[in-house]
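Open question from group meeting: does this chain pack into something compact, or does most of it stay loose? Before anyone orders reagents, we agreed to write out a predicted structure and look at it together. Recording both the input and the output here so the notebook holds the full record.
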Amino acid sequence: MPVSAGSRRLEPIQIIELLAIGLAAGVIGGLLGVGGSIVMIPAMTEVFGPDQHLYQAAAMIVNFFVVVPAVYQHARADAVDRSTVLRLMPLALVAVLVGVALSELSIFSGSGESLLRGAFGFFLLSLCGVDIYRLFVPKPRELEPAELQRPTWRLAAIVSVPTGVLAGLFGVGGGALAVPLQRRFLGMPIRRAIANSATVIIATSLVGATAKNYAYLIEHGGSFRPVYLALALIPTAIIGSLFGSRLTHRIGVRTVKIAFFVLLAIVAVRMIYGSYHATVTA
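Structure tokens returned:
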């Protein structure tokens, strides 16, 4: 059943499907430490049919509400490196606006939506490959707390700019990129890297969601469809995230990660093929 951008109400069956998608995204995100968008956007595409701009606008709203409880827990545990966050955040905010602007280019409008969907598919596929690879290679050395220093603006840009641009372009949180970049270039311990990333995402998701939904509102004649989708996704996504984060310490995550990223790679290939088919038949 397609989700029409012009429709003002969700059917009951659509609400149930969105609640299920939100729950799955929350559990997987909490369990594996991945962003909910990389679950929500492909899932909505599979269930409702392609509409990349709509799903990205909705997912960016959900990202904000899902990450706030996580940041609260990180702050309570004193896991946030504030000096690093203060360097990363300004650059990430500018970068996410650049990413949203790129997603709104005419090449991605109308029938060009399939190109954005295909690019998102390639992004997912590369993400799967990198994450599976990282499961089998030695972890980088982490600096001790006493060794950590406030990053230079150049190093902050290396982390923040690609993270923010991809977050705005594809409607994702950006943690999948921000965490390994912090570990690689800043020597950040994994726990602090995750906490820093989540803290930055609070700001970038809020700014990015505002910009993306404003653009969607203008382009679709005042449609608040992304907000309706987000309202159905948020409650179960938060519940699922809390549940999934507890499961992390009770089950073998490594096997689950491999299975999930293989499944996600299959979904990514389907999105790429669908994009190609839509492009050649347009």
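Observations to bring back to the group:
The two ends are 22 Å apart (CA to CA).
The CA atoms of residues 71 and 176 lie 16 Å apart.
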